[in-house]
Amino acid sequence: MEKYRAGFIGCGGIATAHADGYRHVENAEIELIAGSDIHPEGEKAQHLAREHGIRLYADHREMLEREQLDLVSVCTWPRGHCEATIAAVENGARGILCEKPMAVSLDEADRMIGACEKAGAALAIGHAHRFSPQAVQARVWVQAGEIGEVAMIWGHCTLDLMNNGTHVIDLISYLNGDSPPRWVMGQIDRRNRIEGRRNHPDMPAEDMAIGRVGYENGVVGFIELGERASQSFSFRIIGSDGIIEVNSPDGPPLKMLSSYRSDGWHVPRLEETYSNICGELEELVSAVEGRGAHRSEAKIARTALETIMGIFESSARRRVLEFPIDVGDFVLERMVREGLV
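Above: the chain's sequence. Below: its structure in token form.
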């Protein structure tokens, strides 16, 4: 197995989960080296340093220049993702796992993709639920035709589009075999004028959002976020011959009702894995070593961000939009600035 030097840009709570994932990777020998944070003296950064024996820096560029890291986890607030990712690859990183959302605009996402392609580095985005055993098995069922022809995938959760919404939209895409989106229509409510949440303190957010997305394969995705949506991170896949439920709050992680099976709701035994983030990191190593593409590679993850921007832009224009979504800025921020929400 190859040996890798790994580090973190941003040393908050999610970096701790990344560190634990690195410790349990089974397809490489990974040494945790260093981390940078705007508050290296803070409790979370200090805890990460104590637990994993890493050096701390206040400036990520200094860390990258000195430590010559092979793998970098970008765990900053979203506005820092683009610059941190480009800095990492410019300093020799071979693989980067950047937390979600990928960026705050499509222009930033394209800059990240371009920089990594130029350097030959692997860039994956932290849509970790693609690695949950229930999502993996649900996708297998869908592709095997267990519920016939899929008509709709409905997903919902708490909070806003740039927060949990990116997970909801990305997992709908994954369950749908990553069929390309063709159109989107959406609406948002921002009556409470939210400016920042705990993990996204530097960004505006909406109170509620709904989106309807049409995919190339004919499936429709329906997205609900916010205070009046169902608060669980759950999905229902509706087919011509059955239903699959993922993360049902009142049931098992995965169950299926199919006309092809006569035993009622089918609940499978799921594969046991250490953690979704560990799975992400093992697949990042495989991508770095040329043994296959990452299921959350940047070009796939960009689709979730494009869909989010499409929902915002559809709300602003009051009409359905066709893909590609031709906006380069952070649409919600523009809507706030122009007094639309």
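The chain has a mean pLDDT of 97.
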